[in-house]
Amino acid sequence: MDESSSSKPISDWKDIDTSYRFPTLFLVAKATGWLLISTLFSLLASIKMHSPEFLSNCSWVTYGVLVPAARNAFIYGFALQAGFAAMLWMTMRLGQVKLRGPGFIFIGMILWNLALVLGILGLMGGGLSGYAFLDMPGFVYPMLFTAYALIGGMAILTFFKRQVRELYPSQWFIYASFYWFPWMLTIASYALFSSEPARGIAQALINQWYVSGMTTIVLGFVGLALVQYFIPKLSGRDLYSSHLSFFAFWMMLLFGGLTGLLEAQSLPAWAGVISSVCSHFVSLAWVIVAYNLWKSLQGSGRGSDPFALLLVRAAALSGLVGALLTAWGSRPAAAEVVQFSLFLPGLTWLQLFGFVGTLLLVSIYYFLPRVTELPWKSGGLLSWKGVMTCYFSGVSLISLVYLVGGWKQGKTLADASKSFAEVQAAAMTFIRISTVGELLVFVAALMVCLKVTGMLIAQLRAYIQCCCSCKSEATQ
Amino acid sequence: MQKGYQLFFGILAVMVISWLGLVVFPTVQLGHQSTRQVKEIGRHYPSEPGSIVLNGRKIYQQAGCVACHTQQVRQSGYAFDVVLNEVGDFPDSVKQILVDAAKLAGKALSGEEASSQMAQLPSTLLEGVDRVTAEGVIRLFKDSGAKVAANILPLGPDIQRGWGPRQTVGLDYLYDQPLLMGQQRLGPDLANVGARLTDRDWHLKHLYHPRSVVDGSNMPAYTYLFSVQPIDGEPSPDALELSEAFSAGEGMEVVPKPEAHALVDYLMSLRIENPVFEAPYMFTQADPSDINNSEMQPAQ
Fold first, then answer.
1. Reported ipTM
2. Chain B residues touching A266 at Cβ < 8 A
3. Res. A264: pLDDT tops 70
4. What is the residue range of B40's domain?
C-alpha cells in the first residue's frame, strides 16, 4: 500500500498535497489547541482530587465540571479533528485524488469549533448534561452534526473521485469510523436530548452504547486505521494479511457497539452479559490485528523512522492491553471489584490517550511536513522525540497508576470491614502520582501546540511571500 | 472488500443491529415503566419529585457531583433469618422441631434452650442462613401450628456499609431526567443519603466545608453556594453554626443561598427505604402450609 511507489508523477503529488495543505494545517492546529485545553483541565482536575481546597470557590471549575470538560475537549476537539485530518490524508494519498471542496471543509471546521467552544463554555457555565461523552448541552449536537456533514460530505465526494479504486484495510477502518459517528451522534443525542427523551434506566443503556461506540468504533477505528497505515509505511513492508484485517474489522464492528456495560443490578441482566461476551470478541479481534501487525513487522529491521515505528508499536500495545483488560474487567468476578473504581478511567486513558492519542500525534508528526513541504524545527526540548517521550511516559504513568490504584480501591471497596475513609486512602497515593503524569502530558501538549503553531506561521509566511512575489512578477 | 458500496451497506447493516439491540430494545423494554403500589409504604413508588427537589437536582447536575458519587447500591445476594412468632397449640412437637431444626442448620440445641426460645417470642431461630436451609427449617414446622417467618437480609459490602437497605433497581430511576447514577466512587454512594443523614444543618455545613464535619474528607468545598456577609445587627437565623476553625471571621456569618437549600432538599429526598418486587428486604409472614407461595416470596 505504498502510494509513493506508484507511477504518479511528482507534480501530481504536489497538486494533491497542495489541495490539502491549509485545511489540514488548520484542522491540526485547532486539534492541538484543544489537546492543550483538555490536558490543562485534566491537570487541574487531578490536583483537585487530592487538594480539595484548590480553586474551590468557583462553580466553573469544580472537579465534576473539569473532568467532562477535559474529556469532551479531547474527544471532539482533538481526537475527532486530528482524525478528520488523517481521514482526508488517507483518502487523497491512497486514492491519489485532489481534495474536493476545501471551502466547505473550512466552513465545517469553523462551525465545529464554534459549537465546541459554546458547548464547553455551556458545560462549565451550568449546562452540564450528566451523560458521559455527551456532557455538553443539547443544542451543540445539531451544530456538530451540520459541521460534520460539511467535512464528511467533502470527504465522501473526494472518495468517489479517487483514481485508485482498491480499498486498503486502513481505509475500511477510517471510513467505518467516520460513517458510524454521525449515525451514533444523531441517535444518541435525539434519544437523550429531544423533547421526549428516553426515560429512567433506558438512558443508561443508550448513553453507554454511545460511550462504547465512541471508544471502540469511532476513535478506536481511527487508531486501528492509523496503525495499519503506519506499520507498513514505516517498516517498508506490506501488511501480512488483508484477510485477517477483514475478519478483525467485521468482528470489531459487529461486537464493538455492544460493549462497555458492566453488570449493574439496576440494569437488566442481559445488558451486562451481552456486553461481557462482546468485549471478549472485541479482544479476540484485537489479538488477530496484533498478530497481523507482528507478522508484518517480522524481520523488517529498523525501518525508515525507528522512533516513529517504536511509538506506533507502543500505541498498538496500549490498544491491545486496553482491549484485553476491558474483556477481563467485564467478567462478573472482576467487574464486582473494578466497578466504580479508578480502573475504568485507567482503561479510558490507555485506549484514548495511549492508543488513539499517540497515533494521532504520530500522524501529525508524519503528515504535516509532507503536506506543507516544511521540515519540523528540531532540537532541544522541542524535538519530537522529547515531546512524544514526555507524552507517552505521562500517559503510561497515569494508566498504570489508575489501573493498579483502581484495583486496590475496588478491593477495599468490596471489603465491608473497611471504612470509606480507608477506601479513599487506598486510592490517594495513586491519585497523587497520577498528577505527575498529567503534568507530563500537559507539557507535551504545550510543546506540540508550539510546534504546530510554528509550522502554521511558517506556512502562512511562505504563502504570503509567494503571493507577493507572484504579484511583483505580474506587475513587471 | 474492494468496493465502496460493500463497505457502505455492510456498516449500515451492523449499525442497525447495534441500534436495535441497545437503543430500540431497551427503550421498548424499559421506557414504559410506571409507578407501582408498594403495600409496605401504602402508596405508589417512586413519587414524582417536587419543584424544589428538581431545582436541587439541577444544581447537583451542574456541579458535576455525579463525577464522584454513585447512586447505585449493589447487593451480592440474600441471607435469611428464621423467626418463630407464635408457638400454636402443640408446644411439645414445636419443641422437638426446634431441636431438629437446629440440627438441620448444623447446630446443637438442648431441650431447655428450646423451651427458653419458645418463651420469648418473637424468637430468632436461625441467623443469616441460606435460602435452602431457611426453607428446610420452615418446612419442618408444617402442620405444627406454629407461625414461622423468614426475614430477607440483603448482603454485600454496600449494604453492610449502611448505604441502603437493598440494592437499587431500575424503578428507582423512573423520574431521573437526566439519569445521574454515576460511575465513580471517589465519594460515598448517595442512593439512600436522605435516610442515612437526616440532619439538614449537617448537610449545609458539609457543603460549605466538608472537613468541618468529616475529618479527612477529600470532597471540595462548595462555598459558592453560600454568602459570607457581615452580621448586620441581629445574626441571620439561617446562618451556619460553624466551629472556630471554619468560621468566616469576626463579625461575619455564612448564610446558605437558596441553591444550597435546594441541593440539600434534593439530597434529603434520595431514599430507597421501601422494598420493591425485584429487591425485597422486609420479612413476610410465614405460613408453613404454603412455603413456596408466601413466606419466601418478595414483598410486592
1. 0.90
2. 72, 167-170, 172-173, 181
3. no
4. 36-74+162-269
